[in-house]
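Final report, closing paragraph on structural work. Over the funding period we assembled a curated collection of sequence-structure pairs, and we close with a single example.
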Amino acid sequence: MRRLTAGLAAVLVAAAVTVAAPSAAFATKEQCAGGANGFADIPDNLVGVTVDQRSNSVTNLHLMFGQVNGQNRGWALLGSAPGTRFGGDSYLVWMDWSINGGYSWMQCGPFNSRAGLATITSAAKDTHPTYSFRAGALVNGELLLTGWH
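Its predicted structure, as stored:
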């Protein structure tokens, strides 16, 4: 009986850890661009209001909100250091979108930088009072994440 109880307890703890752990669903660029799933394509240099930002020595990551196609939307923008441009496609940017405050989310992207550009954006998602957004980037192996907003 003790073995059964201990075994059952282990299963329940494992199940609770699985349920309690935040999780992400990943979308291809095609699943969150071109109007899919409420996302809109935007120019790589579109600037809105920065609500959160993370920086390192070579880039600045912004979580932006603004008007896109007549709707309030959120998006991620990754900019190269002032006065520089991206040298290739090694920089990645994405936006995470959640309907439960970041407990679980959908990741839109990543989108690659292109040589010669100074900024790259994710697709933009329409806002709603129950939605939360977070910007993310991978720069030279370093992960940058804004907070949830």
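The radius of gyration is 18 Å. The longest strand covers residues 59-68. We thank the funder for supporting this effort.
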